[in-house]
Fold this protein.
Amino acid sequence: MLINYNKEIYQYQYKGIFDEEYIIGLVELIQNEFEPFVNKKTIKIINFCAIELAQNIGHYSISKHISGKNGKEYGCGTIKIALYQDFVEFEASNLVNISQKEKINEKVSFYNLLPANELKQFFKNKIRAESEEDSKGGGIGFIEIIRKTNNPIALKFDKLENDIFNMHIKLLINNGEQNG
Amino acid sequence: MDNLFIQKTKNTLEVKLNVNGNFEFTGSSFPENATEFFTPIIHWIKQYMLEITGKITLTIQFDYVNSSSIKYISDLIDKLQVYHIGGGEVEIKWYYDENDEDIQEMGEDLKEDVDFSFTLIMK
């Protein structure tokens, strides 16, 4: 897909704690700010990706803070959502350890290569399997992101100290017919 | 058994489980902890299948479902299929908006693996 970055319409950025209240607010923001520019189907995909990425950060980032709202501990990271004329670009980042890096890299690399029909079958098998020990969900978030966006997930890891990495995820969502 | 009612929030479903066998899930589902949210619901339904063994009519109207919730919904539908195979009567009514291909497709995917009545209905 040819990427045209020349016509950015809207950009949202956040750096901080990804607690429950923030994620609920993010969904509302997406509805309010993006709705004039994209169709309902694209809004739903944007919402899905935002929630999956945000909840992953909240659950799995090794940089943690206590939420002032409920006193629970949540992960910290960054998220950026940029709306261009023809697509929406997500960028998210958070700290991970080497074990997380290796698991995520292996999974995403595998999912990115599967053709759509095989990815669907893999997804159906996965939702029936036992959840992984360190997973707070079904382990299907990345699969569903690829299926819904029809684009691969781009991953990059910057090594920091002591086997800690800054993980960067980038997604592209094709912008459907705009509301008018 | 008593009925179970869970009030809707911005990120969790309204859930109505009635001992007469009418079950309803409505709204958006992206709970902070899907296990915590769905475990009592699945437990209640398992108890119904053991103690009451009546017909189950599950009406679903999702706005949005995150990946963690999809797993629990799928797990529940598998349990309903087992109940059906054991002689229990089950019906699912899966509602979706005209423009909501995601929810429609989710219903179609889940329908493929059951052989009880599973109807997709456009709102």
Q: What stands out?
A: The mean pLDDT of chain A is 89.
